[in-house]
Amino acid sequence: MILVTGGCGFIGSAFILQWLATQNEPVVNLDLLTYAGRLSNLRSVQDHPGYHFSRGDIADTPLVGQLLAQHRPRAVVHFAAESHVDRSIAGPLAFTQTNVVGTLHLLEAVLAYWQALPADDAAAFRFLNVSTDEVFGSLGPQDPPFSEANRYEPNSPYSASKAAADHLVRAWHHTYKLPTLTTHCSNNYGPRQFPEKLIPLVTLNAMAGKPLPVYGDGLQVRDWLHVDDHCAALRAVLAGGTPGDTYNIGGRSERTNLAVVHAICSALDGLRPRPGGQPHASLITHVTDRPGHDRRYAIDDRKLERTLGCRPTIAFEDGIRQTVAWYLDNPA
Length: 332
Hints:
Elements: E1 2-5, H1 10-22, E2 27-31, E3 51-55, H2 61-71, E4 75-78, H3 85-90, H4 92-115, H5 119-124, E5 126-132, H6 157-176, E6 180-185, E7 187-189, H7 198-207, E8 212-215, E9 221-226, H8 227-240, E10 246-249, E11 254-256, H9 257-271, E12 284-287, H10 302-308, H11 316-329
Parallel strand pairs: 1-2, 1-4, 2-3, 4-5, 5-6, 6-10, 7-9, 8-12
Antiparallel strand pairs: 9-11
Helix pairs in contact: 1-8, 2-4, 4-6, 7-9, 9-11
């Protein structure tokens, strides 16, 4: 049995779907069901005998303690987080509450549970903290990609809150010897992503014939990672990662935001042409840039491949077309 936090969100739900499809092991999903957590993301497994859902807050220590005592998981995979940079700029307190205070309460409950386990179970237990490359700050055009040794330089309220959570996890390992693992992933994309993020927002706007907003010049660079590749890497880290260690997970697909928008438009031109035949790219509209917008992220994931034999398998061109097709097929 494993316990997943935030399993109704985009990445958490993809992880649970992949887990139940590949592992003969039950999963408990703890999710507060805030705006981006959707039960419909897991509708296909809601009656699966290996799936159990509990609505609640990771900051509710008695509830988490009760779930741990009841289900006795061998691992906790921690996805639950506020994750949208624009929302963090408008309302940073919610990000601090969930990402920092929530993680602290979760660690307290997990520590008490772990310390009471029999020796063999305690040795096998893992706490996997799913983080982001944004904690490392911004890269210049010629800078080498982020490695696990990069120092933390968060530039947004979101990335600062995730950095703080990472530091707490590290401290719980160093001080209490809790067997933790932390991963830093690049920008995820794929089915079921909440439509505030770039790829679903542009896809849905284009489908509706609305303007496609692009921040500034659109030349901000991100490394795009299909969510299925991310989840496969997380399973590898959970199975073989060294407690106390960190692992970068990347897509090896650096693209500018503008190039991503053009790729979406190209996919839509082929899958659902506009009436009159105008290209979807004619809807692109440049808007005022986000405050403090990081210019470039890039991931060096060679440690993951070297130590755990894991690398991305989904090419961006294939993944983006599949993602656009999914939104076309799932208007609800």
